[in-house]
Amino acid sequence: MSDQPTARIVATGRYLPDRVLTNADLERMVDTDNEWIVERTGILERRLASDDITPVDMGARAAQRALEKAGVAPGDVDVLIVTTATPNHWLPSTSCEIQSRIGAARQCMAFDLHAACTGFLYAVSVAEGCLASGRAETVLIVSTEKMSSIVDWDDRATCILFGDGAGAAVVQGATEGRGAAANGRGTVAGRRGILSSFHRSDGDMAPLLQRAAGGSAKPLDEERLRNKEHLLRMSGREVFKSAVKSMASAGTRVLADAGLTGDDVDLMVPHQANIRIIESTARYARIPMDKVFVNLHRYGNISSATIPVALDEATDEGRIGPGSVVLTTAFGAGLTWGAMALRW
Ligand code: ACO
């Protein structure tokens, strides 16, 4: 952690497909009921992209919105990072396809970063490094997920959880915000940008959440397809326990590193996977639920897109503004997890 912020999210954007899949719809598809889903997850409905809408389509729309809001032309992006667990193709990267779609071909470096649901927070840290090293002045992060394409729609334990959508963020140097008026608390008071961050992964836990087939280890064949080994499988209870522990410890650590406490946080924006995980994380960080942004009842878990989509909604709603102290936390397959404290 540096004691001077070097990077700042200057604008965000989002795209959510129109089609809504409610819990009542799911009751007609698998052996489940609305009450179970709401009580165990907090999800009421999720958005699904139609067959002709790809992660590239969704990501490009979110990116264009974020660039418009930032007043940045596509050609002025130096680095484009895409996070996705559902790439359009294995080759080339989804970032190259989005780069072409938004009219930035040949103008910047573009690559995919894969850290499942934690992808956005990992990408912000990579962006911070690009800015601090002087290799970039503007980094565009696009988190785009078509989870409906990798979910087994016959598996009630997973198909109720996920949705589709995309979020984007423009990240630039924090210098312009230094010394800006904020609420004057903590050791890093007044500086706008990323105050502290913490990321970890635990490859020993990889089997808890994976798509076993379809990669080089288990190329697709008829039997694996028949057994649906290419679709997402999860040990929900184990992932749940690990998520609570890791998000809570990462969240409290970044606050301590920034010299802040839960009282200093204006809004917590956690990964939106399960309302019970969010409530436990908030409790550990001593942040009351009225200072926690929740939209999973409308969108479900959109993997790495949840945080940029939530940040974009929170700014649109005026719940985040210049000087706001924001705490974000995430976890996902890998397992991966992380947290970030920032002053908006
Ligand atoms: N409807 C009704 N019953 C169900 C359903 C359903 N949709 N799904 C499971 N059940 C049943 C189970 O079969 C089980 O029945 P049994 O006791 O007769 O065996 C019972 O409900 C309890 O199952 P659990 O899995 O123990 O339920 P739990 O309270 O743990 O909730 C859930 C399950 C919601 C999946 C929870 O574990 C969870 O949210 N885990 C975290 C998942 C997550 O966030 N994953 C995303 C990671 S991010 C990424 O990288 C993609």
Give a short overview.
With 344 residues, this protein is α/β, with parallel strands linked by helices. The chain is built from eleven helices and 13 strands.
Notes on the structure:
- By secondary structure, this protein is of the alpha/beta class.
- The protein is 31% helix and 23% strand.
- The protein has 11 helices and 13 strands.
- It has helices at 23-27, 34-41, 55-70, 94-101, 119-132, 156-159, 222-226, 236-257, 275-284, 296-299, 306-316; strands at 7-15, 19-22, 45-48, 79-83, 109-113, 138-146, 164-173, 193-201, 209-210, 233-234, 267-270, 325-332, 336-343.
- The strands form 4 sheets. A 5-stranded mixed sheet has the order 1-7-6-4-5, with helices on both faces. It has a 4-stranded mixed sheet with strand order 8-13-12-11, sandwiched between helices.
- A hairpin with a 3-residue loop joins strand 12 and strand 13 (336-343).
- Helix 3 (55-70) crosses helix 4 (94-101) and helix 8 packs parallel to helix 9 (275-284).
- The two termini are 18 Å apart.
- 51% of the residues are buried.
- Mean pLDDT is 93; it is low at 176-188.
- Bound molecules: acetyl coenzyme *A (ACO).
- Acetyl coenzyme *A binds at residues 32, 36-37, 40-41, 116-117, 156-157, 160, 209, 234, 236-237, 239-240, 243, 273-274, 301, 303, 332-333.
- Acetyl coenzyme *A (ACO) binds next to helix 2, helix 6 and helix 8.
